[in-house]
Specification:
Layout (H helix, E strand, L loop, with lengths): L2 H7 L3 H28 L5 H28 L8 H7 L11 H26 L4 H27 L1
Helix pairs in contact: 2-3, 2-4, 2-5, 3-6, 5-6
């Protein structure tokens, strides 16, 4: 951890970077789960659901980029070894299912976990690190939107 992080967030820098890395692991695993699901799902409305899964996967990739940039700005080192995704994840990885309904349910579960993660980190940094706080609120709002999109699609099936 560099001087930069200590200057910005003081003694909590190491803990904040650790939590951001766990969220980064979640984002990479969500990206993989949704992208893979989009490619293999079958059933009613599979083509519509696949487009939505792929679009949301791309947004999860954007979140991974934003988290990586923030970790570096804080003087930390982002996770770069995919093996670490599994040991650091908060939300896990659900192996994609060919059943479109089950893939959407897995997405809903993942998004709910992500919302809780970002809420926790936002509370942790509130009043200490405004930039990280605003990033957490931004990503959390997008995760809420993802959950709603998955729920809406699931209801249509």
């Amino acid at each position: 951890m560099g001087k930069k992080a200590k200057e910005i967030v003081g003694k909590d820098a190491e803990r904040i970077i650790s939590e951001l890395n766990k969220a980064l692991a979640d984002e990479w695993l969500a990206y993989l789960q949704y992208w893979n699901s989009a490619k293999i799902i079958k059933g009613k409305m599979a083509s519509v659901a696949a487009k939505e899964l792929e679009a949301i996967a791309n947004e999860e990739l954007e979140h991974a980029t934003e988290l990586t940039e923030r970790i570096i700005q804080l003087g930390g080192k982002p996770i770069v070894d995919p093996k670490e995704y599994y040991s650091k994840t908060n939300c896990g990885y659900e192996v994609p299912n060919e059943n479109v309904k089950k893939a959407l349910e897995a997405g809903i579960k993942g998004e709910r976990c992500a919302i809780d993660v970002y809420k926790k980190i936002a509370e942790m940094v509130k009043g200490k690190d405004e930039i990280t706080y605003q990033l957490m609120i931004h990503i959390m709002n997008e995760e809420i939107e993802h959950e709603q999109r998955f729920e809406n699609l699931s209801e249509e099936i």
